[in-house]
Amino acid sequence: MNQVQVKCNRIVRVGSLGDGGWNICLDDGYYPTKPCLVYSFGIGGDSSFGVQMHKTFGCEVHSFDPFVKGPHRELSHYHAIGLGDKTGTYKGRKFMTLLDIRRHLNHMNKDICILKMDIEGSEWSSLKKAMSDGELDHVKQIPLEFHSPAKGAKFFRNALNTIKKLMDLNFRVYLVDRNNACRYKNDRNIQLTKCYNIYFIKVS
Question: For residue 56, is it left (φ>0), alpha (ψ between -120 and 50) or beta?
């Protein structure tokens, strides 16, 4: 999780300096130019990333979060939908696969400039499904937060396999941040974190 694999020369923070802001790469080939499409999964109480991506770069930004109460009036396109490995309703909330979301929004003929994911542990199964559907073929950058919600060999084998598949699709890490909101001390009193913000770009 700490290994940077490729260099991005121009990294800029978009949105707040806190948990709601994210970094993006502005090198040639990755700079978001119109018409750019951004998907932002997971808003919480901070929608600054989506707002600034639209204001600064003029991108069409679609923000998704089924757990947010009330409308986000500052967002151009807000959807009370969560990203998942299947499409359906769970505990009264709507979830869709990335493929079905693109179909629903009539985006099948558009590439996704930036796919941002902060979905509290659901990224593992959602990414696996998106990759099996071939949906990451349409994505240039993926800033996401990896969570470690489970312990045991099975979870970590599946997590390693998911990361390997990302590498097979030519995604490489250009930046890593430890999320201090997930810090804990292990049984040896060593400070660790259960959350990593990982920034990927597709290199070819």
Answer: alpha
Pair 106, 137: CB distance under 8 Å: no
| pLDDT score for 44 | 83
| Residue 31 burial class via C-beta count within 10 angstroms: exposed 0-12, middle 13-18, buried 19 and up | middle
Kindly report the CA angle at 189 between 185 and 190, in degrees rounded to 5? 70
Name the token pair of 63. Answer: 């923000």
Could you tell me the two tokens for 136?
């990451």
* Verdict on whether the full-model pTM lies above 0.70: yes
Residues 8 and 25: beta-carbon distance below 8 Å: yes
Q: Residue 83: beta bridge partners?
A: 96
Q: Taking the CA of residue 37 as centre, how many other CA atoms within 13 Å lie in the half-sphere pointing to its CB?
A: 11
Distances (CA, A) of 174 to 24, 26, 141: 10, 12, 10
Which residue(s) pair with 193 in the sheet?
Answer: 183
CA neighbor of 16 nearest in space, from 47, 54, 44: 47
pLDDT for 105-157, tens place per residue?
A: 999 999 999 999 998 888 899 999 999 999 999 899 999 998 876 667 888 88
